[in-house]
Structures are given as C-alpha cells and as structure tokens.
Amino acid sequence: MYKILSGKEPSDALLEELKAKVKKMAKKPHLAIVLVGNDPASEIYVKKKLEKAKTTGVKTTLREMDGSTSEKELLELVDKLNNDHEIHGFIVQSPLPEQIDEKKVIEAIDPKKDVDGWTSSNMGRMFVGLDTFLPATPAGVMKILDYYGIELEGKNITVIGRSNVVGKPLAFLLLQRNATVTICHSKTKDLSMHTKNADIIVAAAGKPGLVTAEMVKKGACIIDVGTTRVDGRLKGDVDFDNVIKKAHCSPVPGGVGPMTVAILIGNVVRAMENSN
C-alpha cells in the first residue's frame, strides 16, 4: 500500500541523461577524488562514485593519501588540483583524520571546481538564489521527492539534523519550494511532537532507528538520509521495517545514496560546461 521511495530509478534516469550529454562532448569531464586514510565506509563510497562516473563517460582520478597526512600536505594537493586544467571538479572525501581541519580544506577548494557544493561561496550563492553547484545530498533528496510526485508547496516538513552539508541547505531548498519547514536537532525537546504532524520527514541525524512508526502520521513521506555502519551493515535513521507499514519511506541502502552520487556526477558535467 505504501511506496518504497527507491533512489535507484531516479538516479538511473539522471545518469542516462548525463551519459547521453557526455557522449556528445568533444572533451570528457574529469572528476578527481582525494581519499585520506583508510576508513572502510569512505573507501566503499569512493568506489561507488568512481564506478558510476566511469559508466557515465566521466574520466576519473583517485588521489590516495596516508592517514598520517598533514593538513599542509593536503592543502598543497588541493592547490594543485585547483590549478590543474585537466581536472574539472574534485572532492575531498570526508571524514578526514583528526589532525586536519575539514573546514579549512573545504574553503581551500576553488568554488568553480567544488562539485560537492560545500564551500561557503557556493553555499552563499545557493542561499541568495543564484546559480551554483548544489550540495549533492540535499539536491538528491529534492530529486527523489520530485520523481515520486510528492507535493511540497504548503506542506509541513520536519528536517531532523542541522549539518552544513545536509540539514541546513536542505531546509533552504524546501523553503524555496514554499514548504513550511521545522528543523530539529540533538537539543530539540520532544522530537515526536514535531514529527507526528509532519507531511514529510527527512531524517539526517546519523542515529540508527531514531524515527519509529509511532512518530509518524499515516500516509506521510519519510526520506532517510542516515547511513551508520552497524555490525558491518548500513543502517538508516528510520525503523524502515515498521515505518513502511504506515508511511511511504526511502530505504537504506538504496535510497538517497544513489541520488547523491548521480547529483555529484551531474555537477562535474556542469563544471566542464562552465569551464568552456
């Protein structure tokens, strides 16, 4: 009765569009990914990004650095990539080792190559409504909602999580579509009070099983952005098995993840077009 809001179908559709676009390009877009350390989850995410980019016709370069890499060494590599005319866009995979200030690294990326959309320059352009690279995960959530024809205007939407890369930008993208948005976080009192009346819930807190069936109203739409590795398996923020009996819900894995990758590749293609 209730839909599984899979990210596979919309991501496949977007990747096919990008593949057709790349095929017509005289010069292929080139994505570089910097991976520092050997975090198992990061290695899996990077592998998926590289695989999907290649199948779309996008050139890829992986730059791996040891976990003991200094902040100075990483910033030097970022500078090289900024000035490499063969690289159209690049990302520095997070999380980074504790000796490195992630904000400093993000700010060092040339906004024209910031295909994650994380620099303050691109975030600022998004907040004032100028054309820019949108952060991949929030843009992926929007694509899923649109793909399944979920109306946003006038809807009560609760976003759980206030990170700079998901919660805050997503709330703004929803506001742009005339939704009424509530942002909840770790200091919110009585979370269920805000979720029970929501037409749409986006859970991006990184707490497995946080959203239970009792916390959602019948027929609501739930987008699960959470990805936490528990006993070797990815778990979302939503108790999917029980929530799906009561509301439409995206799965983990197979929900927002594939869309995030597709949006990232789309940003690389745009970076190539912008460079021309």
Characterize the structure shown:
- α7 links the parallel β4 and β5.
- The protein is globular.
- Helix content is 40%, strand content 16%.
- α6 packs across α7.
- It has a 5-stranded parallel β-sheet. Strands 2-1-3 form a 3-stranded parallel β-sheet, with helices on both faces.
- The longest helix is centred in the last third of the chain and has 20 residues.
- It folds into 2 domains: 86 residues, 3-Layer(aba) Sandwich (Rossmann fold), CATH 3.40.50; 122 residues, Rossmann fold (3-Layer(aba) Sandwich).
- The chain is an alpha/beta fold.
- It contains 10 helices and 10 strands.
Walk me through the topology.
Blueprint lengths: L7 H16 L6 E7 L3 H17 L2 E7 L5 H12 L6 E4 L9 H7 L11 H8 L8 H12 L8 E5 L6 H10 L3 E5 L6 H5 L4 E4 L17 E4 L3 E3 L2 E3 L4 H4 L4 E2 L6 H20 L1
Parallel strand pairs: 1-2, 1-3, 4-5, 4-6, 6-7, 7-10
Antiparallel strand pairs: 8-9
**Helical amount:** 40-55%
Low-confidence stretches: none
The order of strands across the largest sheet is 5-4-6-7-10
Number of helices: 10
- Name the helix and strand elements from N-terminus to C-terminus, one letter apiece: HEHEHEHHHEHEHEEEEHEH
Principal-axes shape call: globular
